[in-house]
Amino acid sequence: MTDGRRRPSRPLRRALPWLLASLLLASIGLPSVAGLRVVSVAPEVGVAHPLASSENRTVNLTDRPSFTPQFVSVPAGTSVSLHLVNVGAYPHTFTLSATPGARLLPSWTPTAVDSFFEKNGTLANVSLAPGTEGWANLTFNASEALDTFEFASLVPYQFQSGMWGLVNVTSTTPGVELSENTTDSLSFVPNVLSASPAHYPVVVAVLITNEGNFGHTFTIAPQSNVTLLPTNYSAYFSAHPPLVNSNIPGQPGRTVWANFTVFGPGVYQYICEISGHFANGMYGFFYVGVPVPAPPPAPSTAIVDSGVLVGSAILLGIAVVFAGMSSLAGRFPPRSNPPGPHS
Ligand SMILES: [Cu+2]
């Protein structure tokens, strides 16, 4: 039996291609295992909460330079104290315009910004040395509902570098009230809204402020837990009319109320229908009566995450089984030869 003599060298040779193929499979599989992990919603900029009267808010003044949060909602008819914290190493100011709807232009020089406030007045003007804190106590009466007031830092060139924000005064209508902003960088700020209504249906009012020159829409899906794509939203909204489709005129400081009714809890996606805006990331999610997912974890220092490890372990296990099977295959007794002509 010549076959019998060769057999001992065969198992490894037979196993090798299986092993290589399995490793290849594993290498193809790893990225797809990683890809299966659901990426959470677009980068979280902020969470708007249902407004509560006399709620105090903290606004951080940073060296980026920026105000965080940049947009603050204050209900009309109440007093709100803004807790101002300079978290940076440079001085900053929180200087709030007294003129509703007025916008500072980024092209203005520091002198022009100063003279605007000198001429038109301020609702608050707090200078903060590095590491210090202060308060701005604000009261808006009912007639100021829907007004928007800009704040900025008067330290030269901080406003021009982006250190500004808006106080959005919302109405006192019952129900859930939220505020939202649209930007020329084609985004909703924040892109995550949340509310925990006590009952359904619930009337929701979103005060939308356009900070830029581009027009936008606030168009929200009527069904919860539907994820729209730039390629299918038109067809979707044709079949399922949006809860609301508000046009936000392209003018800095313009405000529009989007009022709609939500009939049950869930996650409702909203988008801008202006051509190309959704595809550029202009969308957000409204979490109604369900928890907002935790923001994506900070990048891990681990080289691979646990999901990838599990996936590769499974695929390597398959590789070992294949290798083992193929090496054993050679050890099974050969099928009995067909009877020879001489037997
Ligand atoms: Cu848009």
Annotate the secondary structure layout.
Layout: H1 2-6, H2 10-36, E1 47-48, E2 57-62, E3 66-68, E4 71-75, E5 78-86, E6 92-97, H3 110-120, E7 122-128, E8 133-140, E9 148-152, E10 164-170, E11 176-183, E12 187-189, E13 192-195, E14 202-210, E15 216-220, H4 233-239, E16 244-248, E17 255-262, E18 266-271, E19 283-288, H5 306-329
Helix pairs in contact: 2-5
The protein binds copper (II) ion.
Copper (II) ion (CU) is lined by residues 186, 216, 272, 274, 277, 282.
Task: Describe the structure in your own words.
This protein is α/β, with parallel strands linked by helices and 343 residues long. It folds into two domains: 52-172, Cupredoxins -  blue copper proteins (Immunoglobulin-like, Sandwich), CATH 2.60.40; 174-294, Immunoglobulin-like. The protein contains five helices and 19 strands. Strand 2 and strand 3 form a beta hairpin. Residues 186, 216, 272, 274, 277, 282 line the site of copper (II) ion.
Tally of discrete structural domains:
2
Strand order of the largest sheet: 1-13-19-18-15-16
Bound molecules: copper (II) ion
- The run of helices and strands is HHEEEEEEHEEEEEEEEEHEEEEH
